[in-house]
Amino acid sequence: MVAEVVDHSNAKYTHVIFDMDGLLLDTEQIYTDMMGQVASKYGKTFTWDIKVQIMGLPGKICYQKAVELMELPIDADQFSAELQVLKNELFKNAEKLPGIEKLVHHFVKHHIPIAVASSSNSKDFITKTSKHTEFFKLFHIVTLGDNPEIKQGKPFPDIFLVTLSKFSDAPPAEKCLVFEDSPNGVLAAKAAGMGVVMVPDERLNVEFQHNPTLVLKSLEDFKPEDFGFPPFDE
Fold first, then answer.
1. Pick the catalytic residue: 21, 124, 158, 181?
2. How far is 133 from 111, CA to CA, in rounded Å?
3. Active site residue 19
4. Are the beta carbons of 27 and 94 closer than 8 angstroms?
5. Do you know which SUPFAM superfamilies this protein is assigned to (predicted)?
6. Residue 21 catalytic?
């Protein structure tokens, strides 16, 4: 994977917003398995090409698009209901992804304001984070997809702009750095006027990365000093 060459020498970010699924927590394979199980009941297949198109979308829109793309003989509500049964069982097993523990604690240590902005609804968020409640207490703000202030989900910028407004010192958008894994998330962050570091699935074609500020294979490769933050302690 080749990252776009970007000069960060003058970049100075002061605030950070993290996506959750596939970025903080390793839930994307869980989503793939669940959708595959439901699709197979109706003789359909949940493919990577379909997944790319729905990653990062808010719940109802995501399910509607999945139903249409897979030509399922059920509506989005039924699809959601069948998924929910699996979610209740599987999401509680979600683990943190490599590099995130070190990075989040680094930001906390240096008093960098951090937030989570996830398309997940409140119920799913509670299940997904049930093993990591202390970790998620480190975030100053958590904005979820069912927040009534969010009129349109990713790829629209609403969730990031709403999150930005909740920081106590309300920084300008260009001072905020977003971490994302999905194409729709990158588009949303860029539409909000923010910098964005993408950590995509290795299968994602470059054309679907949408030219983020930087592309990394893992958050373990992130260098805070490249974006105006204090470097990791040696």
1. 21
2. 20
3. yes
4. yes
5. HAD-like (SSF56784)
6. yes
